[in-house]
Amino acid sequence: MALEDYGWLDRSIHRIAFGTKVPQDFLLDMEERRYGDHIARQEIVSPIFVTGLARAGTTLVLETLARHPQLATHRYRDMPFVISPIIWRDLSGRFQVAQEKKERAHKDGLEVNTDSAEAFEEVLWMRAFPDHFGKDGIKLWDTLPSAFVKDFRRHMQRVIVARDAKGSAQPRYLSKNNGNISRLPALKNAFPDARVVVPLRHPLDHARSLLKQHQLASQSHAESGFARSYVSDIGHFEFGDVHRPFLFEGMSEIVRDYSPDDYAYWLHYWIAAHRHLAGQSDIEIVDMERFTNERHIADLLARLELDPCADVVRSAQEQIRPIKRYDGSPDADAETVEAAMAIYEQMRNRKDCLL
C-alpha cells in the first residue's frame, strides 16, 4: 500500500498502533489466546533471510521467492499490527479490498499492492533491542539472547499461520530485511539451518541508486511528516531525514568525512558494507547483473532446496527486467573506485555466488 493511499483512517490506525506498545501487545495477547496452540504446532525449518544494503535488489529477490507456495512472508496487509499478523488478518479482513498494483514510492519501476511481499520484520528488532538503534547509527550484533530467539521463532510461526500455507508439505519462513546485514553471524548461530541470500550489485551503480533514493526520501520527508514517521516506525532508516547507517568497521570516519548528500558517501558506505559481507561464510550471493539478464530462477530455487515449481519460474522470468545500469564516469576518486571494484570482483567470483 503506497503512502499516498493512506487516508485519514489509515493514518489514525497507524498512529494508534505505533504510539505506544499497548495496542500491539493487546492484539498479540489476543492472538496467543485464540491461536496459541495452532501457532505452536508450526515447525520452523530452514528459514530464508534475504538481506543486503538497500537498492541491491533485495525486493526483486523477495518478490521472486514469495511466489513460491512453500514460502510465507510478510505482506503489506500486515501493517500496522505486524507482530500479530493472524489476528489482524481476521479483524481487518472485512475491510480489505482488491487493489491494483502501482509503482512504489522508490520510483524504481517495481509495482506493489496490499498483497505484495514487504519487509516489516525490523519492528521486532527495535522492540527487543532499542539500545542498538542510536542517533548516529545502528550497532552490529554478535550474539542473540535465547529469549529473543524464542520470540523470533514464534514470530516466524505466526507469519506462516497467517499466510495459511495449505498444500505445502513444509512451509518455510521468508524475510527480506536489510537490517539483517548487521547481524548475520548471530542469525546463523541462532538458526543453523537458515539460508541467507545476499544480492550483489555493481558498486558504482549501487552507490548512484542509493544517492538518488536518499534524495527522493529527503524530499518526501520534508513534504510529509507522516512519511517520515512511517519509515521510522517500521525501522527503515536507510534514507532521508531518518538515515542511520549500519556501523560497520570504518563507518565513523566515513560519517565524519562525507555527507549522505554526496555520491562519495554512498560508495564508501558500499565498501564498508561489502567488506563486512565478504567476511561472511555460508551465504548465497546473487550476482544481480547476471541474475536479471539470464534469469536463473530455477538455479536459485535449487540452491535454496525449494521445489522446482514451473509456475514460479515462468512467472518470475516474465516479470524480471535487467537491473538498471548508469552511464557516465564515477563521481569518486580512482583509489576508492578501485577498492570497490576489487571487493565486487572478489564476491562475484566466490563459489557461493549464483552465476
Describe, in plain words, how this protein is organized in 3D.
This protein is of the alpha/beta class and 355 residues long. It has one domain: Rossmann fold, CATH 3.40.50. The protein contains 15 helices and ten strands. Strands 2-7-1-8-9-10 form a six-stranded parallel sheet. The radius of gyration is 20 Å and the shape is globular. The model has no long low-confidence stretch (mean pLDDT 89).
Characteristics of this structure?
single chain, 355 residues, Rossmann fold, 15 helices
Task: Give a quick precis of the structure.
The chain has 355 residues and is of the alpha/beta class. The chain has 15 helices and ten strands.
CATH architecture: 3-Layer(aba) Sandwich
The low-confidence parts are: none
Number of DSSP strands?
A: 10
First-last Cα distance = 33 Å
* Oligomer classification: single chain
Strand content: 5-15%
Shape, principal axes of CA atoms? globular
Helix content: 40-55%
DSSP summary: helix tally: 15
How many domain units?
1
The top level CATH class name? Alpha Beta
Structural class: alpha/beta
What is the radius of gyration computed over CA atoms, rounded to a whole number of angstroms? 20 Å
* Biggest sheet descriptor: 6 strands, parallel
**Widest beta sheet: strand line-up:** 2-7-1-8-9-10
CATH topology: Rossmann fold
Order of helices and strands: HHEHEHEEHEEHEHEHHHHEHHHHE
Mean pLDDT: 89
Write the layout of secondary structure elements.
Elements: H1 8-19, H2 22-40, E1 48-50, H3 58-66, E2 71-72, H4 85-92, E3 102-103, E4 111-112, H5 122-128, E5 133-134, E6 137-138, H6 146-163, E7 172-176, H7 184-190, E8 195-200, H8 203-223, H9 225-233, H10 251-257, H11 263-278, E9 284-287, H12 288-294, H13 297-303, H14 310-319, H15 334-348, E10 353-354
Parallel strand pairs: 1-7, 1-8, 2-7, 8-9, 9-10
Antiparallel strand pairs: 3-4, 5-6
Helix pairs in contact: 4-6, 8-9, 8-11, 10-11, 11-15
